[in-house]
Amino acid sequence: MQGEIKVVAGSSHPALAREICKHLGIEVAPSRVVRFANDNLMVQIDDNVREADVFVLQTSCPPVSDAILELLLTIDALRHASAARVTAVVPYFPYVRSDKKDRPRISIAARLMADLLEAAGAGRVLTLDLHAPQVQGFFHVPTDHLLATALLSDHLARTRDLSNTVLVAGDVGESKDVGRYARRLRLPIAIVDKRRLGDDDRAIAVNLIGDVAGKDAVLVDDEIATGGTLLEAARACLDHGARRVDAVAVHAVLSGHAVDRLEGSPIKSLVVTDSIPLPPEKRRDWIQVVSVAPLLADAIRAIHEGTSVSELFR
Which residues contact 289 (CB under 8 A, 6 or more apart)? Predict the structure, then answer.
């Protein structure tokens, strides 16, 4: 792109936008959101973006619906302001778990989100650790799917002794993600066999594939919502003789009483990224936050300059 690079911050995560801009050596482009008396929103860009290459950062966190609408309005405003290209930077993609029709008469909401972004005028999408990688295929515009594996793996290697560590997938579906960490850290893996034995939604760990006896177990997941999967996996590891249990995840959703549940659990520490802002009431000494700003900034620079984004996976 020949135009100037600009980053517009949505209201969901301004701190991450500022960190990204610090790495890029630019300032966040000024914008504002106005809520009228009738609860309608208006987004105004307070900067000249004509022929600019604009990146709009908005992650999915409460209030989710407001964040989605604000992102769509911002993209539309930029398109009508003659931006050369608008890229939606969505670290945690909204409705990412609704990737299939697993119940009668429901929406495949992740596909709908993709359609809405394109309809609003997004010419490209940049996202991070999709819960279901096939969501990338929902788009008809170029979509870069980054992984935080390297950031989190390197953090683990720097901050702890991994000589007696095994990486554990909380269920079979997470085994592929755990494999990426294992290859980078050269560690063994184990997998919790989790099944639903009744009519309720609660899954029970019935077996553990692999050896955790006498080892430090690190649970790996792409996101933590209620914490139920981590708690069940931690119990399974301790039942099979693990010496200690820690956890690492990309997206710290931590809905409801998840932090309190984890605080009272055998899990000693939790490492997450700042793809979602962690409010003060959810911060604890045992929760460590690794910033994804350098990764997103490098991807934004590569997209703007037309160089390879895939190099960031190495």
Answer: 252, 271, 272, 273, 274, 278
Q: Which CATH number is 5-147+293-313 given? A: 3.40.50.2020
Catalytically active residues are 194
Fold agreement between 5-147+293-313 and 149-290: yes
How far, in Å, CA of 54 to CA of 14, rounded?
16
Q: Are 76 and 45 in contact (CB under 8 A)?
A: no
CATH of region 149-290? 3.40.50.2020
Spans of all domains in the chain:
5-147+293-313, 149-290
**Alpha-carbon distance 67 to 60, whole Å?**
7
The predicted-structure confidence for 239-267, as pLDDT tens digits, reads as follows 999 999 999 999 999 999 999 999 989 99
Report CA 38 to chain centroid distance, whole Å. Answer: 33
Instruction: List, in order, residues 6 or more apart from 82 with CB less than 8 Å away.
Output: 49, 50, 51
**Which residues touch 144 (CB under 8 Å, ≥6 apart)?**
124, 125, 126, 127, 299, 303, 309
The angle subtended at Cα 138 by Cα 256 and Cα 227, nearest 5°, is 20
Global confidence as pTM? 0.94
pLDDT one-digit tens code per residue, 113-166: 999 999 999 999 999 999 988 899 999 999 999 999 999 999 999 999 999 999
